[in-house]
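Structure in, sequence out. Go:
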């Protein structure tokens, strides 16, 4: 079950919190996909509960972001049922890195729960970016770990993915952690507040969606 709670900055999925277990996207045979419940509309259901005191505007923002995922993939959130086998916790409260309750961060965390992870963790990232490990704040190195068994579903590296970190994410003062090999893109990464088509396509491929972003797919 997905639990939205006021707590710390980080979140866990199925009680597995180590970023070293994360892939760019969950592989097709992963038992961590949300494919246990199928709604009458043919969409896979992520059951959730909300804990903590949120304003009506915050509730509305959350529902809007959930609805975007449902409209563009075959995965949706529903508060009616519980999920066996663990829970996911998304943390939306402020931290030393700023408030987590903004449009882009909230969507990023929701897509993390669905099964997407940082674009900068892809196995093929060295063709597109350079990660400056020496500039990463101590204790946050795992957010930049390259996962060798990543599943990208054949989707090209996406600098504009909402899942891509910015150049100074978790950087020591006055430094950067990510350098794009194409310097024209340096100030574009990490600025997106909405998923790209590639983000949605990856989710659709992960869950074998029959329609993706309103278009019928070739999935049987």
């Amino acid at each position: 079950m997905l639990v939205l709670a006021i707590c710390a900055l980080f979140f866990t999925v199925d009680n597995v919190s180590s970023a070293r277990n994360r892939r760019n996207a969950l592989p097709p045979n992963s038992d961590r996909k949300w494919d246990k419940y199928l709604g009458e509309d043919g969409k896979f259901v992520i059951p959730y509960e909300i804990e903590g005191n949120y304003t009506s505007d915050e509730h509305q923002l959350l529902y809007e972001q959930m609805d975007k995922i449902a409209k563009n993939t075959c995965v949706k959130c529903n508060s009616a049922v519980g999920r066996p086998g663990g829970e996911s916790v998304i943390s939306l409260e402020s931290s030393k890195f700023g408030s987590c309750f903004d449009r882009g961060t909230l969507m990023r965390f929701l897509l993390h729960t669905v099964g997407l992870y940082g674009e900068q963790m892809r196995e093929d990232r060295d063709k597109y970016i350079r990660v400056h490990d020496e500039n990463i704040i101590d204790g946050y190195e795992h957010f930049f770990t390259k996962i060798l068994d990543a599943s990208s579903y054949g989707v090209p590296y996406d600098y504009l993915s909402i899942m891509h970190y910015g150049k100074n994410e978790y950087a020591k003062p006055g430094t950067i952690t990510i350098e794009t090999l194409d310097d024209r893109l340096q100030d574009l990464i990490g600025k997106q507040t909405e998923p790209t088509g590639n983000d949605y396509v990856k989710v659709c491929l992960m869950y074998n969606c029959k329609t993706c972003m309103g278009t019928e797919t070739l999935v049987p």
